[in-house]
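We close this part of the discussion by returning to an individual protein. Part of our work consisted of pairing the sequence of a single chain with a tokenised description of its backbone. What the numbers capture is local backbone geometry rather than side-chain detail. The amino acid sequence and the backbone structure tokens for this protein are reproduced below.
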Amino acid sequence: MTQTPNSRIHPAAKFFFEGDKKFFVKGITYGPFKPDGEGNYLGRPEQVEIDLALMRQAGLNLVRIYHAPPRWFLDRCAAAGMRVLVTLPWEKHIEFLRERSTRKQIAEAVRAAVSIHARHPAIFGYLVGNEISSTMARWLGARRVIEFVEELIRMGRAIDPDALFSYATYPPTEYLLPQNADFCCFNVYLHNQRDFEGYLLRLQNLTGEHPLILGEFGMDTIRHSEDEQADMLGWHIDSVVKCGLAGTILFTWTDEWFTGGEEITDWAFGIVTRERKPKKSFYTLEEKLGRNDSALPHRPLPRTPFVSVIVCSYNGARTLASCLDSLGKLNYPAYEIILVDDGSTDDTAYVAAQFPQVRYIHQSNHGLSHARNTGAAAAKGEVLAYTDSDCMADVDWLYYLIGTLVTGDYAGVGGPNITPPAQNWIQACVAAAPGGPSHVLLTDTIAEHIPGCNMAFYRWAFESMGGFDPEYHKAGDDVDFCWRIQQAGWVIAFSPAAIVWHYRRFTLRAFLKQQDGYGEAESLLRFKHLIFFGPTGTAKWRGQIYGTPRFSWFVNRPVIYHGIFGEGFFQSIYPSPQSDVAAYLSSIEWFALTIFLFGLGIFLPALRIVPYLMLGGSLCVALSYMVRAPIEPKFDTVRARLLVMLLAFAQPLVRGFSRYFTWLRFKRTPANY
């Protein structure tokens, strides 16, 4: 039975959606075949119809092609319920950035290819390039190449705004990641499952909040047997799902292949033969992919312990209904939901009453840590999972969170928290401002810190630590708990696909109040964990902070390891670390010294220029943050950038003032556990 795609696919964080349902890419490359008289590389329409029917039988839902297609091909794909990802070819082996005429020719080719099929329902998206060689990228300059690819994406999106756009890179140039792409696409051929999964988790962290798909993966059945191909493609699907990717595209549909002006006869990567006879891998995929369903093909978890999901709320009624509604739809077989109302004075109790499946506990206001401990005391689960009332959990949140927890020797696990689309430009600026809750990773799989809105721990680990420290009323309890877990010799895992949507503060006042609370928490943490803090009272993380950009200079660039003679197959990016100088220039101590010298300059004219230079240094740090800040495109205006700069300037000052105020008020060290 055929079906016509009714809506375009859109990305949301690490996944694709068709309407409000997840769309998992189950793709296959198709062609190119020997061209006909009209220059068509996709074969005869009759053969295409036969192939599409077989693809649907195998559970595939997308074809990737390497040339702009004729209209009849897209129409047949739409009729068969197949999406099309079009790779737009252009000459990448020449110095395409040197001559203006060459750049113009490439741009015109992209513009023409997108224009002719704009808004066709079968179009999934476009790849505006594929595997620019590492030698060419180094020769032309990685930054210039990325900017050119970004310009091609902007050009295509202006013509067909509903289509998705990206660039297909590969391990030798994993650093070529256009920032305006809708998703990230990597061609990866690794035949060892353990190495493959390790690299996928690296790519998940490298690509941030974008969906990640594999653009090519396969095995040749001339040099390997059909059994080997079937076995490898089977574990490939399992690994892609396990690591939380948004899909994969296998290479290729048939052994028939024409490239470089020649028919290729010494490779046989197809899952069907030239005569379209299915190989063993075809039937493996048919079993793994779930027939013609585009839903995520969930692999069974090794174990599904009972989980107690604990939500703590203080006057969080505004977002509580969305939170509880999302938790009621989780794709996990055994869990309960506990809501701890920490003395709210708003409509929290009324909202909770609309969800009878939620266990509601009310207590007088004792603070966040106490509320989390109250929830744990009432919980029945082997695992305690925490989120906040201003969060919405992805439907597969527990599936990925617990899937990671039970596959290693871990005490706990966490995942990313992602900002929902902003409703206005103020919200967009607050979301892009520094100081939000972020995870800190020691490796691609091990965390130093996981935010309290997305974390889970085994009950035995929680009880061994004595729960959360009630000294922390507003924030900081999650940091303290993570550090104590690690000091006990245990490990915290990280799952990049275990997503919660976390509303940032809705107003500037709420944002500054949040930073004030974080400053208080940092002061309390410094009393207890002095070795983790620098002289200005800010935390010294061993790992890499993910999320918004860190304070740095304009000249700070990631370091790319290109391998021996620049020919390493896996060329890695090493992000630039936090700049100590930038941290000092943005600190409250530096600002206080600047104010002092302003006053001193009244009496000593020779010093008057010094505070202006010091203030200029602070503004340069805020300006460098502003340039790198990721603001939602529809709200990315000059005034939004200026507001982000102001917030980047004010945020460390508010935190610093709160740290000193708390220190002067307490001047004591909380009891250690």
In short: Residues 4 and 636 are 36 Å apart (CA to CA).
